[in-house]
Amino acid sequence: MYVSHLSLLDFRSYPSVDVELEPGVNAFVGANGQGKTNLVEAIGYVATLGSHRVATDTPLIRAGASRAVVRTRIVRGDRASTVELEISQGKTNRARINRGQPGRARDVLGILRTVLFAPEDLALVKGDPDGRRRFLDQLIVLMVPRFAAVFADYDRVLKQRSALLKSARAVRRSGGPEAAATATLDVWDGRLVELGAEIVSLRLQLVEALRPVVATAYELVSEGKGEALLDYKSSSTEPVDNSPSGGGSGGPGLSRSAPAPAASGGVSAGDEGVRTEAFRGSGDSVEGATSVAWIRERMVAALDAVRQQELDRGVSLVGPHRDDLLLTLGGLPVKGYASHGESWSFALALRMASFWLLGGAAQLGTPPPSAPAFWDPDRGTDADPVLILDDVFAELDARRRERLAELVLPARQVLVTAAVPEDVPASLDGVRFHVEPGAVTRE
Ligand SMILES: Nc1ncnc2c1ncn2[C@@H]1O[C@H](COP(=O)(O)OP(=O)(O)OP(=O)(O)O)[C@@H](O)[C@H]1O
Known about the structure:
single chain, alpha/beta, Rossmann fold, Glutathione S-transferase Yfyf (Class Pi), Chain A, domain 2, 2 domains, six-stranded mixed beta sheet, binds adenosine-5'-triphosphate
């Protein structure tokens, strides 16, 4: 697929702009702060309904305006769709597809797929677990848009449950009775487990599918220096982390998980908890430990074990919001051990692997990787995502620049931003645009 037209109204620094794009490479070049990232951020927003730079929508609306509009034309095979998104201050965002009636923004998910590389990706490997959870969840929604509702429901339940825990703590501190709050807590626990187990299961399946692809991508990006491994660490089966940010190394408080059921091929979660690494290369044995029913069981037990701690602290300690994607290189954690260059290569490998998994591998002429079990990929119909490389080449040395350029070149469409023309590798030949405040001119 590719984006053939982008039109912005009051989005970031643009009062109004129209850009015709081509399949292949489109490079946006201009000095710092001219609005290059704003353009690709808008395209990424149409695919994910989120920005790679900010967590809320307000900064996306031009200062002084009350709403922003992003309109794109997306070509897939011999079909074209128009998607128009209205981002409003203090109101629900709306979407129009093919100039139809305005509807829910969420309905546009799945029409455009993008994989975006940006300097912010370094935080994906070096930062808090939150970014890595978002990486997994965003990829799941790109594959199966309807799961966006599961994530949204989980967030809502988590908020309600956490508020309840806080008020129970306050009642208790003032010497009041806790019984009413804990009875309501049981109801929220049911919803938390139901939705949480589904999310953990999806993530485990995705990690399983990503693992070999990330290893290959890392080998290609770094030219074979070290083995890149992924592993999923679940708070539902691991000891609870008592640190304020959560998701770090385990601390005391929760008994170790029981072995997986016989249906899982006898794989013991044991000291490893639900660590997908335990299932590497073990064929169908991963199914038992990724089954929603099995995870649900573990989550119920984990919640039971931490109930008192949760009431003491007023915080939800178990569930996918406390999990992490563990990244290791040559047996050592990336965070805290890997060099700057190695961390960068790992981040690039995660994005490259996402691109291949979403269908980009077809362009490379290599066999497509195995899809996660929850996804039935629609390969072969121009499904490969649009690749966005935002300010990435300036961060890489000459060899890795060429390496990355080689890998992305076969993609159906690549959008590149760079402050100076020399930052775009010569092999990425295509259309160039000059960007200056409020205007984008094709060269
Ligand atoms: N909501 C907004 N309203 C008005 N201007 C905004 C808004 N958000 C960002 N800007 C402006 O947009 C500009 C940044 O644009 P952008 O991040 O696209 O720059 P860039 O060309 O990618 O720069 P660099 O090369 O430094 O990464 C800044 O001048 C910033 O003040």
